[in-house]
Design goal:
By secondary structure, the chain is mostly helical. It is built from 4 helices and no strands.
Length: 161
């Protein structure tokens, strides 16, 4: 491209931008939905295992909190689909995209919390509690780098002002 051909932005209407952003958002949500639904499904089966009765009260509490976080994450990540279905054709797509984006961000945070709590529970049971805090802390730090630090760094580094 020559200098004259270099574009500094998109030439799109508000509705076209909303359509494009909606498509992008739905693709992102599909990935997160699949992960949270599989994790939540596995969590629901734990209570029916024989070993569940042998868990300490603390571990049972961690389990219940984990299930509630998973249910909340699932709700937030499925929310954009329901939102779209209920407002389709009402000419509010730009507003729906903003709300769906917020729900997705909340869902990703809740998914992070669910995965953290799941790790705590699994590692407490699997290792008798030794070094769980350090291991979970390292994994959560990795999630934070991948999910927040790198994207925020990229946005800051490559965004035009």
């Amino acid at each position: 491209m020559t200098t004259q051909e270099t574009r500094t932005g998109r030439d799109e209407t508000q509705e076209e931008r909303a359509d494009r952003m909606w498509g992008d958002l739905i693709q992102e949500v599909r990935v997160a939905q699949t992960g949270v639904q599989i994790l939540f499904g596995f969590l629901l089966t734990v209570v029916f295992q024989q070993k569940y009765a042998q868990l300490s009260d603390v571990d049972k509490t961690i389990y219940v909190v984990t299930v509630l976080l998973g249910a909340s994450a699932t709700g937030a990540l499925i929310g954009p689909v329901s939102l779209h279905r209920l407002v389709a054709g009402r000419r509010v797509k730009p507003q729906a995209v903003r709300l769906a984006s917020r729900l997705t961000s909340i869902g990703l945070f809740l998914l992070l919390a669910t995965m953290t709590a799941s790790l705590v529970l699994i590692l407490r049971v699997a290792t008798s509690g030794s070094n769980v805090t350090w291991v979970v802390g390292i994994v959560v730090a990795w999630y934070l780098v991948c999910w927040y630090a790198l994207p925020l760094w990229s946005r800051h580094r490559h965004s035009t002002r």
